[in-house]
């Protein structure tokens, strides 16, 4: 249940409603917009279902949210969330952001080269993995703290921000001071303890969709983060598992309009993991922009054939540069910018 | 195996190669391009694998096609197929075609109104079902021959061409003189007898992807049609079956670049069946154009809420008109036209 | 809606109810059991929803069936259907039937050898394909009429009945006099024209589940057959398409108890197509019996490695003989016999 | 690569091989059987591929394991693993173990009643959740430490062992002294940090299959645990995610014979989560035993309709008691015991 206040509602009337709700044993979550304040009720609504909030002072209307996710829900927060960074970059606004870089950080030279190139081509975030969750325990698991440092040097030199995956509390702690966006990978989308952990922090979170998660489960996973207080969450579609083997995963681009109808959070699309083959990445990147995505995350490697992981799905510099030129045109066609 | 001839190869050298191949017990399929002739070998290649075709007169090179589909294969026919209609419309060229109309033909008034409107908004093909394959035997199964006549009147009045589904030999025979494109529905994608039947005819075929068919199976289904002689086949992505229930099907837009890399046939996308909900259709239509589709097939109904079938996924006239305006801009952004 | 009559209800009271129903514009379907008669109403129930059938003479009770399938529904026909053959064999009774034989009929010698062996080991039906729906048009498509004749000779010699697949009206006509059970394959489960065709005939039908059909769609497909008058339908689980590639399909054995709760039709399980690998067939055959299947259909070939199709999933004679011994014990453990 | 020693190989010859391997920069893992010792090589085999181990003293033969999982591999450890508990119970031997109890621990009375009943019916392990990973942050998350204590009291009173899920390091630490088997749930199957953590402990681990994990990924997840030193791992099939909605998940019973062909680890089946409906549980429990499972884990609740979670899939006491009687007979039919 959500109580929407009148534009001129006073602090007193807001406080009065909250005290009624709390007396009944429920929690509240308050969103203050430029004009309106919305009070969300958290807990067992059956205790309060008949209470006449509509006639209380300052109340505009009361609506019911049937979905189990509340804070994430567009009905609760109709305006799109825009996440703002210190350098002026915004995610969720008119401008579509591009995050680019290698699958894994390998050494200083390659990550710096990648950062400088993708920045020059128009990317604002450097992506790269220092902690790699791998199917086999014997595969390369990332450079860990060393990788974070190399990536940090590269982003500083290129004047970018960085997004990197954390896989548990330990890696979260190690990475926190280096990163600008905390990435939760597909395999950890329902690692609820980790979601709660990042929910208590003060940096934006990029939450990848689980390998076979429904959109409903994904939004509930985002709710775990928001329920702890961190409101800067973005959702990243990266392909789902289906019977089709022509692509590594099946990029579910319909998730973009579906999410736009259900949540106010920004949506990022990963065409690299979504297809698993670099020749398909440009088409799907353009399609994602046309579908309404707020951002793209794309794997770029100086020499994809030599990459320690995921070389098949990485673009080289030239391919990425050409793609960025085309993406700018497609973005304009749907009233956005890159 | 495919033998590519030199630009100046004589009729005699082509004939000589064919006679060698046939002597060995294999068949041939000849594609004459503007400059080059290509000879495809059909049958058991083990009989002929060592034959020195490379040194025969007029031969440019010999390539091996490992996929089970040959005529459909881009390696065999590198130029994109363009299907041409009497009124000058082309499918597979620079211009993206739009097919639009109701799920089912209901009566003269509604189909004529739909035809006139979608034509005015830029569609060149009228879509509509007279034979409806329905899950339950007790659901509306279409107006059959009466529906075909109503649809034919409407397309004539509006100056359009028409595409409609056939479900067996009897409906194929009934519909053949009315339609301009023969539609094979998802449930019949591996109805091999029906595929062979349409393969012997001389009208273009729109082959929808099966509900859970792989791209490989789909291309082999197209091969069934082409192997009988009908070379005018287009492939229609309409969503695949996955675990996700937020959409009716999961529209696999990656199929567009995958198909472009494997076949020369035109690719149509159906965002209506692909999503099952009209509010998601515009985003996915734009995404399909950006991904490189050669055409769209969209359900449009004068009053979607009153539709006898699939009202949830139909656009009304205004929604379709507005979408067409936006699609023209997206098409231009990827060097196409609508 | 279903009207269940009292045990002593007279012909007149049954006739009276039917005439009321028909006057209202609906159809009826009557099932006479040993003690009870049930009248099913077919058509638009909104016309009749308030009619006081409960107080008419001879009526025991009135129940509503919400599923779109009626004749197939257990609520309509609570007793299990038992299909009886001239030689005394029954499907759906206490005895579990085994259908066995090669994927495809190859020649007289192999099919006769297979028939004699599987009969001696306890199978009562010979399976084998004369019309093979194949993904590629260039794969072996079956011996067609010649294959039917070879198979017919073999079943006669061995004293068996035979089940074979038909793929369209032409093959149905050719095969009808040879076969004892008409098999509709997975790819034709929603070939509604073919379902209607076999619905008008007087031989039992084995309806395989579509590659990615839901149980609800499958029961509706069976309803297409029953709605035309043929009440001898059995359902065959043969694996569904999932992301897992360790097996050819994922055998959905849960379909057995699910179907048992929803329909009165007999259920057959095909562990050969379900797994695609002969080493997994014995375990899944035993599991199917334990889960409550009424029959098994198993691929057996004299020399699996030389089979023209599906050799990987065929048992050889010894493997089949040993499996039959074990199946008898498992059948006894669940109060059945083989 | 795996080196199998002769039965009479001396300690010296084993040590000599290990020192060669380690000199080349690889690790070793030694399995001593009753008669034979096997040496597994861990690391980059390209460094050692040509080394003539075959001619070294005591070597019987050298085999190559192409799968990425080694310690888990049947080729490496051909004998089935049998996990032994202090009270004489074994998992993986002739006797099939049954784990039973409620989804979640609710209070002392219900967990004690459940323990006493399931023990009397033949179960040897009490199951129950104290830490519940739930889709929504607002759903009941388990009684945590209090739940562990209640469950511990119940198992002690009933004379059972207990299995319970841990979801992160904190819950693992809290639960370790109470539990006899550490359960890793489906959502954490690829929580590699947690897998490593339990790999360093000295209690058996029940590793549930991920919601849409392949069998290959699952075996690699088990390898993460074994690679840290914990060799007592059992695999639990609990249904995979497919398009079918008639059941909560699709129980992939084929996984039982597939796993039996690839690994030596014991296999447990969970028909409760696998089907999600209690009426389907008995059929699938019997099928699992017939397919060759080494154990079952079944949800049982004194009053399923009042359960705080998963009541739909829980058996009541009578249903469980009757099922156990039938399972004993099926177990005997496949040369096992319960």
Brief account:
Four copies of one chain form a homotetramer. Chain A is α/β, with parallel strands linked by helices and 338 residues long.
Number of helices of chain A: 10
For the record, the count of structural domains of chain A works out to 2
Provide the CATH topology of the largest domain in chain A.
Answer: TIM Barrel
The largest sheet of chain A is: 8 strands, parallel, barrel
**Span of the ends, CA to CA of chain A:** 38 Å
The largest chain-to-chain contact, stated as pair and per-chain residue counts, equals: A-B, 42 and 42 residues
Low-confidence stretches of chain A: none
Write down the overall mean pLDDT of chain A: 94
Which class best fits the helix and strand makeup of chain A? alpha/beta
Strand order of the largest sheet of chain A: 7-8-9-10-11-12-13-14
Please trace the helix and strand order of chain A, writing H or E for each element: EHEEEEEEHEHEHEHEHEHEHHEH
Query: Which architecture of the largest domain in chain A would the CATH scheme give at its second level?
Result: Alpha-Beta Barrel
Shape of chain A: elongated
Q: List how many beta strands of chain A DSSP finds.
A: 14
């Amino acid at each position: 249940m959500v109580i929407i206040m009148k534009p001129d509602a006073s602090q007193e009337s807001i406080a009065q409603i909250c005290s009624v709700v709390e007396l009944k044993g429920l929690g509240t979550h308050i969103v203050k917009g430029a004009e309106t304040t919305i009070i969300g009720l958290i807990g067992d609504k059956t205790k309060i279902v008949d209470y006449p909030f509509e006639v209380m002072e300052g109340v505009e209307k009361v609506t019911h949210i049937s979905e189990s996710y509340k804070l994430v829900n567009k009905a609760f927060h109709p305006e799109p969330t825009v996440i703002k960074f210190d350098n002026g970059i915004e995610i969720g606004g008119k401008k579509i952001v591009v995050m680019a870089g290698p699958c894994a950080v390998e050494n200083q030279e390659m990550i710096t080269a990648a950062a400088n190139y993708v920045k020059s081509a128009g990317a604002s975030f450097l992506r790269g993995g220092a902690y790699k969750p791998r199917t086999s325990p014997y595969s390369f698991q990332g450079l860990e703290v060393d990788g974070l440092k190399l990536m940090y040097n590269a982003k500083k030199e290129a004047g970018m921000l960085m997004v990197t995956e954390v896989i548990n509390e330990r890696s979260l702690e190690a990475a926190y001071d280096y990163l600008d966006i905390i990435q939760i990978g597909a395999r950890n989308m329902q690692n609820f303890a980790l979601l709660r952990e990042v929910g208590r922090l003060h940096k934006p979170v990029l939450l990848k969709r689980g390998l076979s998660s429904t959109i409903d489960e994904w939004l509930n996973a985002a709710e775990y983060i928001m329920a702890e207080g961190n409101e800067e969450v973005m959702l990243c579609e990266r392909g789902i598992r289906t019977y089709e083997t022509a692509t590594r995963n099946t990029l579910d681009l319909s998730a973009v309009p579906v999410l736009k109808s259900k949540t106010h959070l920004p949506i990022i699309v990963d065409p690299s993991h979504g297809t698993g083959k670099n020749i398909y990445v440009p088409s799907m990147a353009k399609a994602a922009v046309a579908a309404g995505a707020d951002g793209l995350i794309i794997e770029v490697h100086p020499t994809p054939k030599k990459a320690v992981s995921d070389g098949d799905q990485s673009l080289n510099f030239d391919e990425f540069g050409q793609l960025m030129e085309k993406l700018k045109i497609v973005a304009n066609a749907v009233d956005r910018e890159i």
